[in-house]
Structure formats: structure tokens, C-alpha cells
Amino acid sequence: MADKQHDVTQTDGAKPATMHRLGWLLVPVLLALSVVQLANVTVARSTPVVQASRGGRIDPAQTRLIVRLAPPTVDAVGAAAMDAPAAALDQLAALAAPGDVTALLPLAHSGVDQARRRADGLTDLYVVTLPPGADPAVARARLTADARVLWVEEDAVATGAVIPNDPQFSLQWNLLNIGQEGGVPDADVDATEAWDLTSGSAAVIIAVVDGGVDLDHPDLAGKIISGHDYVNNDDVPQDDYGHGTHVTGIAAARGNNGVGVAGVCQGCQVLAIKVLDNANRGYYSWIAAGIIDAVDAGAQVINLSLGGASTSETLHAAVRYAADHDVTVVSAMMNQGNETLYYPAAFTETIAVGATTSTDVRAGYSNTGDHIDLVAPGSSIMSTLWDDDYGSWSGTSMAVPHVAGTVGLMLSVNPGLTPEEIRTLLRGAADPIAGDGFSPAYGYGRLNTGETVRRAHPDRPTATPSPTPTSTSTPTNTPT
User: Fold this and answer.
1) Please, is 234 exposed, middle or buried when counting C-beta atoms within 10 Å of its C-beta (0-12, 13-18, 19+)?
2) Which of the residue ranges 88-97, 210-219, 349-358 would you say has the lowest mean pLDDT?
3) How far apart are the first and last CA of the chain?
């Protein structure tokens, strides 16, 4: 299924090397070098595939297409048998205006990972950057009409789902709500009850595929694994907007260290992969590559506090790749306050999360829909920011890492849980807000981290009663 509401027919390792302006004549070369000998699970490449230089930030005037080519056929002994002669491939090269043609994915870190990617059809994806003045509709039509092209789609742009505002454990009503700042007592995720069982294992890796992270933040020190930066084409995923650092702190900031704030899964490691630029935007191709990278790097949970309104076969293929390898993907419903579908949250394989306020109601900006799984605190959430700072931000982006961190705690006590078992536990343990059962505004209710982790624990320990909340006075946030 293309998404959670209905099927959508879409017509539309070594790290990357520098992109070259080779035009469509590069396609036959890419195909010829992409042969995988499946019988031996090895990768046979005479030279590296040309990779994209993903530097700088998004150019809104630039048009990029993602093309999936039909893979070469492979005979019984693993030898490549191209299903089209060289002359036909030369004709394919002339179907679109010359542009930059690059492989969407870097070469995998191992032959096993490369074979796994090929099995899911991910090695046949290429990004075409059209030159100025080229008609994208004409290029797409010509490519789509060719039998050797499985599909073509725009390389759409996603954004982080944040609504910033400005005002460390006393301010975190999301984790323990005692009525501070006019909130409703117990309108939180009961994180302290979960911490009675576990504060998280370093064996669990949460991948935050986002805008990078402040690699030197004192509340995140020693727990960040540096992944790839697809924006600047290097391996230093430094945050230059703040979104990724804020999300990371909610999911996994250190606790009981006398510094700043506490994250949900304090003991978990975080794999930081940068796919959003310094304006909080990222191409779908970057996000898809980041998801696949996270799976191959050993992440058990992927946090996607981002989304775009365009569906995408490429993005869906990456999410399926994660699900097929037992990696839980958590994504944001986004912030339009309506029923517009945003991806990847609308894909069936993701856990889609909306946002609530400290008064235990849906945040007005939080999208609704039949594909939502549950809600979590998302308004005025205090967390880490870049440049070693802290701040209070709002958005479904902030709700998602509460769930991703909870999944980290669940896997800390029960590493064998599958993504669907995790989804079932999250739904079943959620606190109902709008009556029992499901609603398009709240899904199955508000996240209850304490109860979810208790149910995930193999020994099902006795639930710890919540303390009677006592209202206290705290400083008021100053909106910007």
C-alpha cells in the first residue's frame, strides 16, 4: 500500500564522490557498473558509481527527478544478462535534456548490505538534476514511456515539523506534568515510571534523520554517533538550524547529570544523519538515503520529525526497507491543522504521531487523519539547542521523539520486539483522551511511556501508581 488511507499510483560503505556533469549518456555506464553477483553475495564494480555532491542548501529554482530503472536480469550463475542492447540504452540516454545524473545511494559499507539493498530494488535509483530551462513535464513523459524505466517522480522537498517559540527538569511538563504553566496535572507521558524499569541501554541506537546535531552539546556528549551529512556531503552532521538538536534532546538527552534537561531514553545512543539544510528543508532523495543508511548502520529506531505533501515511491521504498529489516520508523503528522496527508507519516509502515498541549488537548496545528497512531506532547517542549543552548519549541516534530525514545526504552527491556509488536503496545497502553478507541485527532490516545515499557517488559512488573500531582509555579514562556 502506498499510504495508510489508500493506494496511490505514482507515475510520477564508501561515501559519495564528487558529482560530474555527464548528462544522460552516463546511464548505460551506471547500469553496467551496478551488477551484483547474487550467488556469491558480492559486489562487482570496476569503478565507483558517480555520486551526488550534496553540498550547500536547497535551490528552490532547481528541478530534480528520481528515476528507477529496471534492474539488469541475472542468470542462474550470477552473471549479468542485460535485457537491452547498448544501442537501446543509448536511445534511453537521449530521452531527457542533458543534466547531472547521480546514484541516489552511496555504495554500501559491505557486500551484504549492497546485496540487501539490491534485493529491495534500491540500487537502481538515480537522481537527475535538469538544466535551467528544461521542461520537467516533457522529461518525465519521455522517461515514463520507456519500458526500461519503472517510474519517475519529482525529488520533492520535505521540511521539519517545528513551530519555534522561546521561554530544566521542572519545565519539562511533557515528562512530568504537575500543573506547571497552567497545564493539567498528569497530562504527560509518565516517563518517570518508565525510568523505574530502565533509563535506556547503550545497545539501542535511535537514528535521528534530521538536520544534524550539536556534536559538542554537554547534554548529548558521548552518546552521538556521527552519520553522513547529505546536505554538505561529508561525515560531520553538525546542526546549523537547531531542529535536529532539539529533537535529539527530547529523545535521548542525558539524565541525572546535573545539566540541562532529561531525554526519554537517556541511555540510548543516537545516530545523527543530516538531511535538512540550514533552512530546515531537505530533498526526498537525501531523506531516503538517510533512512537506508540508518538501517545498514544498525539503528533499531528511526526518528523522522519531518514530512512533505508529495507521496513518493522512492521514500516509500526506503521506509519499506527499514520495516523489512525490523527497524521501527516514527514520523510526524505535520503542522497544518487539517487532514492533508504528509509523507512518510502516511505510509502504513510508519508510526504516525500527532501533538498535544500541556492541557491534554490536541494542539491546533497538529494534522489529523485515519492514519494517525497516537499523540504525544508537542507544545512548548524544553530541549537542547545548537550552540550548547536550551529552548522551548512546538510542533509535531517535538511529539515524535517522545515516541522514538519510548521505543528505545521498550527495546532496552525486550530487544526481540518487532515493529508491529511495538505499534500494538504503543496503541494499547496509550491514555485515551477522546473516549475509548480510535479517533482521527488522537489516534489511540496520548503516549504513556511508563505503561508501554511495563507491558513491553518480559516480566510485566507491577505498575507503579502515579504520584498525586501538586501544582507549582514556574516561569512563563516568552513567545517569539
Assistant:
1) middle
2) 88-97
3) 41
| Residues known to be catalytic | 210, 243, 397
Higher pLDDT, 473 or 352: 352
Average pLDDT, the chain: 78
pLDDT at 97: 56
The bridge status of strand 374-377 relative to strand 205-210 is: unpaired
**In the predicted structure, residue 172 carries a pLDDT above the cut 80:** no
Predicted local confidence at residue 257, as pLDDT: 86
Whether residue 462 is predicted with pLDDT greater than 90 in this model: the reply is no
Of the candidate ranges 81-95, 303-317, 329-343, 362-376, the one whose mean pLDDT is the lowest: 81-95
**Rounded to whole angstroms, how far apart are CA atoms 189 and 331?**
18
Q: Which domains does the chain have, with CATH numbers?
A: 23-155 (no CATH), 160-456 (3.40.50.200)
- Average pLDDT score over residue span 117-133: 81
